[in-house]
Amino acid sequence: MDLKDWFANRKKNNETAQAKQILSTEEYCALWISCFQCRELLYTRDLRQNLQVCPKCHYHFRIGALDRIEHLSDANSFCETEANLISSDPLKFFDTLSYEDRLKEANQKSGLKEAIITGTCTIQGHPACLAAMDFGYFGGSMGSVVGEKITRIIELACDQRLPLIIISSSGGARMQEGILSLMQLAKTSAALKKLHDCAILYISVLTEPTFGGVTASFAMLGDIIIAEPGARIGFAGRRVIEQTIRQKLPADFQTAEYLLKHGQIDMVIERAKLPQTIANLIDLHSLDCNQPKPEAIAKTPLKIH
Asked: For 62-298, which CATH superfamily applies?
């Protein structure tokens, strides 16, 4: 064997060893995960069975929209609506990447077409309209399609007189759509006004994290506002507020517990108890949801552009 072949074989052996090491690391990461709060090393399968909640410190990990729907709705009861709505690029936005490329990247990473999934289902036997946001798609940002899907599920709840549950997890409005994304704040709020006039229950569930334009619109307009333990909820970020007011904020500022203490939300409910809690609330308000539609409301269709 000459010197050239020896170096070639050595390089090949090193690449094989590195590949095995990477594979071993990926297998390890797939089996174990460290809790972000208490740093406990958790077995992934046990964590999944515990609804992605740390059994030691009860830290609630972020979960996707599909997991939310599976957890809240009865088995095989969810029927998706507006599944084919996808974002366009009206402003031809470009930073380091084009908006179209970012959408494709978000789609590949999350497996979703948009940052929200909407549909109808039953929750412990109670028919309902359900919408779940997914932070894994573009940070759960609200663009034109997210606003449109939320508006349409609200209108469906009005037409079928079903209670509405929206699970929020978002960084706010999507800057790549500029003013069009900001218009969704008014659009969804106007739709919820119609829902309120129809005397139909709207439960808003806030999860980690809920910020920006989502907090400034439909997320905080629920008849009943529920949050998961430890969820961060606000408009601007903590650092921005501290730099603006030049004061140090409390350690628990913008957490679900802080908002509950100051009367901005109604409940802080653990993930495992959410389905039963929501079912109880729907049952409690079922008389309101089944009231005949008032004549004045029936003659005033919602016009949203």
From this structure: 2-enoyl-CoA Hydratase; Chain A, domain 1 (3.90.226.10)
